[in-house]
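Supplementary Note 2. Why include the ligand at all?

Several targets in our set were suspected to adopt different conformations when bound, so apo predictions alone were not considered sufficient. For every target with a known small-molecule partner we therefore ran a joint prediction. The input for iron/sulfur cluster is given below.
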Amino acid sequence: MNYCYRNDSDMTNGEGLRVTIFVSGCEHHCEDCFNKQTWDRNYGSPFTEEIKQSILDRLKKPFVEGISILGGDPLMPYNYDEVLELCKAIKKETGKSIYIWTGYSTEYVLDKFCELLDYTDMIVTEKFEKELKDVTLYLRGSSNQKFIVNKKVYSEPPKGY
Ligand code: SF4
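The joint prediction is reproduced in token form.
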């Protein structure tokens, strides 16, 4: 897996101070995607064990609330295994919150990514739809996008996320 951007002090992609990482590769190709350079899975740099360990170290700081994993799409088949392993390690070693953004449909995520749901706190689903774009929305670009929390589906992010 490659990643193209990391921010250790992000306050825009969820509750509290978070680590944010954008992984490379996305085949949803939404019209007017905000991040087209990340469609190429080879874009950016390899996600190495050292990077993984430094993320874990950062998440162990008491003032860091959790991690937000965006892209690209973290759930593309070539990214999924490493993202799942990262989430398992984060939960085991830090217990911090994990948010993930994907362009897959809500139904597909609930059906195909059961194991990941056990290790994440929130997954934001659905492709970006330019006709439904709304820059005032929190944690999503268009109003069709949904939130899976504890295997339940919400149209708005639940309070506290
Ligand atoms: S899912 Fe996200 S990264 Fe992929 S094309 Fe759509 S907006 Fe862009």
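The chain has a mean pLDDT of 97. The helical segments are 49-59, 77-93, 106-112, 114-117. Comparable summaries for the other entries are listed in the accompanying table.
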